[in-house]
Amino acid sequence: MASRAELLAWLNDLLKINYTKIEQCGTGAAYCQIIDSIYGDLPMSRVKFGAKHEYEFIANFKVLQNVFKAKQIDKPIPVEKLVKCKMQDNLEFLQWVKRFWDQNYGGQGYDANARRKGAPDIPATVAPLSTGGSRTGGLNVGGSRAGGRTPISGHRSGSTQPNEAVQHLTAQLKEMSGHLEGLEKERDFYFEKLREIEILVQEQLESENAPEDPTFRKIQAILYSTEDGFEVPEGGAVVDEEEETF
């Protein structure tokens, strides 16, 4: 098993990037390019290296999943864990990717910068915020630890800690607001897709030449199904927003 330092050194050398933490692999971009270095045909234009929201990370992993399927790579990708950008989950997956690369890389030259076409290689944030907090012990994943910066003020040294705490919490609140905005966009995106499907199915079932194929009825049943303990609010049916993406 390669250590974290060894993995980071290998990753930075192969991809010509400057990652400082294993957690940064949680955006999915680095995993995609490692696989591209083996096969050379991954659609790099679809990989977002500047991703900073979880739904963008998921889109990168979707590209990776498609390549795994096309190349018949029999390895489940724990997307839901990896996109949280926790060290242990990404360390385990990166160790597997490194072993796979060792077994399959043909030694051919690889121009990582050219394949990225100038895209930034460092994500805007190390990870999206999560309610569970960071394993590193800080309040903000990827942010500076409390006490890491001295506020620019004329206060005496004894008053710096409260100021640092305020700055830290303010930065966390700002990042949480950005993360919430991303989640709302992701929710609205999938809701609109489900709504379009619902309208299409309803139109087909209510048409004079309604198809005899029971598929539309089954789709409608899925759209209107609920889980145990879930109650439809007054005003009509809603789509379960917690439905799995993958």
UniProtKB/TrEMBL annotation:
One GO term of the biological process aspect: protein localization to microtubule
Subcellular location: Cytoplasm, Cytoskeleton
Domain EB1 C-terminal span(s) in chain numbering: 158-232
Any one GO MF annotation of this record: microtubule plus-end binding
GO CC, any one term: microtubule plus-end
Residue span, Calponin-homology (CH) domain: 1-102
UniProt biased composition (Gly residues): 134-145
Coiled coil residues, start to end: 166-200
Family annotation (Pfam families): CH, EB1
Region: Disordered, residue numbers: 125-145
Xref: SUPFAM superfamilies: Calponin-homology domain, CH-domain (SSF47576), EB1 dimerisation domain-like (SSF140612)
Keyword Acyltransferase (UniProt): no
UniProt-listed PROSITE patterns: CH, EB1_C
Keywords of this entry: Cell cycle, Cell division, Coiled coil, Cytoplasm, Cytoskeleton, Microtubule, Mitosis
Cited InterPro entries: CH_dom (IPR001715), CH_dom_sf (IPR036872), EB1_C (IPR004953), EB1_C_sf (IPR036133), MAPRE (IPR027328)
Family: Belongs to the MAPRE family.
Protein name listed in UniProt: Calponin homology domain-containing protein
Provenance organism: Lentinula guzmanii
